[in-house]
Write a structure and sequence with these properties.
- This protein folds into two domains: about 100 residues, Quinolinate phosphoribosyl transferase, N-terminal domain (Aldehyde Oxidoreductase, domain 3, Alpha-Beta Complex); about 120 residues, Alpha-Beta Barrel (TIM Barrel).
- It is of the alpha/beta class.
- Strands 6-11-10-9-8-7 form a six-stranded parallel sheet. A four-stranded antiparallel sheet has the order 3-5-1-12, with helices on one face.
- It is elongated.
- Helix content is about 40%, strand content about 20%.
């Protein structure tokens, strides 16, 4: 089969061109390490590259190199793909963190729902944007609705988890069965350290915080919120008093940050 590029570039064999990759939008850079790996595999001469986590503005050069025509064309196909999605995710994560302010911690656990091949890159992108990839950085046990159901309820599930020394227990609250306040009270009395209100209903968050203040355990239990959180909701959740917010699709489904590759001569 005829290789079109091989035909087009036949007379340019061994001629070297310079090229640059520039960003078309402001954002947070991610995926550079992978892009540099591809450039190395292609045999390109690398002259300059920015660092993962750098803030970039439209027109910024993030990579400069030299190579033969066919290699540069392949670089355009491969390297821009390494940068676009991770940088979009990092930029979205950073936006969420800025909206949250200093008191509200932003995490994104949605990376667990993407294909295994891209998880590591997206996890790194989330961290580069300043958000967490787990609800807490300390050792913990997360008891979601299915664990709780199979272990016989909130109290036996927490008691079982507490047998593991040195781990905080996180309980997902869905308002299934008893009201959300009843679930929260049971989880705290059993020894949970973090409550994850995973209903997407801000009224549930408000009720649990009011309960915590009224019953005197607000200072010893962290309260997290999740479920359809969009950027416009983040400041309001901070004002309501949440400690942690899980921003899922708004970060992981962020659009690509746009890059271009230009031959410079």
């Amino acid at each position: 089969m005829l290789d079109i590029r091989e035909h087009l570039f036949a007379e340019l064999h061994q001629k070297v061109f310079g090229f640059e990759i520039r960003v078309n939008q402001a954002g947070v850079l991610a995926g550079v390490r992978k892009a540099v790996e591809f450039a190395t595999e292609l045999g390109l001469k690398i002259e300059f590259f920015s660092q993962d986590g750098d803030r970039v503005e439209p027109g910024h050069c993030v990579f400069r190199g030299k190579g033969e025509a066919e290699k540069i064309v392949r670089a355009e196909e491969m390297m821009l793909g390494c940068l676009g999605k991770p940088s979009g995710v990092a930029t979205a994560a950073n936006r969420a963190v800025e909206l949250a302010g200093e008191r509200l911690k932003v995490v994104c656990g949605a990376w667990k729902k993407v294909a295994a091949e891209v998880r590591q890159e997206l996890r790194q992108a989330i961290k580069l944007g300043g958000a967490g990839i787990r609800i807490t950085e300390e050792p913990f046990v997360y008891l979601d609705k299915n664990y709780i159901r199979m272990l016989g309820g909130i109290t036996p599930a927490v008691e079982r988890a507490k047998m593991l020394p040195g781990r905080s227990v996180v309980v997902q609250l869905r308002g299934n069965g008893p009201a959300i306040e009843g679930e929260a009270k049971e989880a705290v009395e059993a020894g949970a350290g973090i409550l994850m209100i995973d209903t997407g209903d801000e009224a549930d968050l408000k009720r649990v915080i009011e309960l915590a203040q009224r019953d005197g355990w607000r200072d010893r239990v962290k309260i997290a919120f999740a479920g359809g959180v969009t950027f416009d909701k983040i400041p309001r959740l901070a004002n309501l008093g949440a400690d942690i917010v899980d921003v899922g699709r708004a970060i992981i489904d962020a659009p690509l940050l746009d890059f271009r590759l230009d031959v410079t001569g």
